């Protein structure tokens, strides 16, 4: 099995809520804990790019994400990202040749009891191992090539653009 590089940017998947008013902060990446709970025992390397809500991501953040993806020796890269601007970031990496890059996030924080995070992470981990080179979004049991998907906020899902 080929090693997988994981680049984290924050987003809802890593949010930690502090009180009943839903004040939150983007915390440390939850992916290592999720992988441990799922008994994932193959080689992964995790690099934190930023800890931001995706609505706060800038073009500079996307440039750093792109540079990190290009610099990784691994050809398989999983990117955890907030769902609101995931499509924009995926498109910013779309022309990177020779790598399979899969973006994944969650509609509910991984720290919550009812969350889609573990399923999405497992699904995206399988996708990054099986898909041909390209940039994709893997959410809620579906894979979309970058540039062909949009977030439907009302339905809380991703769908073809």
Automatic annotation (TrEMBL):
InterPro entries: Asp/glu_Ase-like_sf, Asparaginase/glutaminase-like, L-asparaginase_N, L-asparaginase_N_sf. Residues 4-154 form the L-asparaginase N-terminal domain. Substrate binds at residues 54, 83-84. The active site is at residue 12. SUPFAM superfamilies: Glutaminase/Asparaginase (SSF53774). GO terms for molecular function: asparaginase activity. This is Asparaginase. Pfam families: Asparaginase. The lineage of its organism: Bacteria, Pseudomonadati, Verrucomicrobiota, Opitutia, Opitutales.
């Amino acid at each position: 099995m080929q090693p997988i590089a994981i680049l984290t940017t924050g987003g809802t998947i890593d949010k930690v809520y502090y009180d009943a008013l839903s004040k939150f902060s983007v915390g440390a990446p939850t992916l290592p804990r999720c992988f441990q709970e799922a008994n994932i025992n193959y080689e992964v390397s995790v690099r934190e790019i930023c800890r931001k809500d995706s609505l706060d991501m800038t073009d500079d953040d996307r440039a750093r994400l792109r540079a990190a993806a290009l610099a990784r020796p691994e050809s398989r890269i999983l990117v955890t990202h907030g769902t609101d601007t995931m499509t924009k970031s995926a498109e910013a990496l779309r022309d990177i040749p020779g790598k399979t890059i899969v973006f994944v996030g969650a509609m509910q924080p991984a720290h919550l009891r009812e969350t889609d995070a573990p399923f999405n992470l497992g699904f995206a981990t399988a996708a990054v191992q099986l898909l041909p080179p390209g940039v994709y979004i893997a959410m809620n049991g579906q894979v979309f090539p970058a540039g062909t998907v949009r977030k439907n906020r009302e339905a809380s899902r991703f769908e073809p653009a």
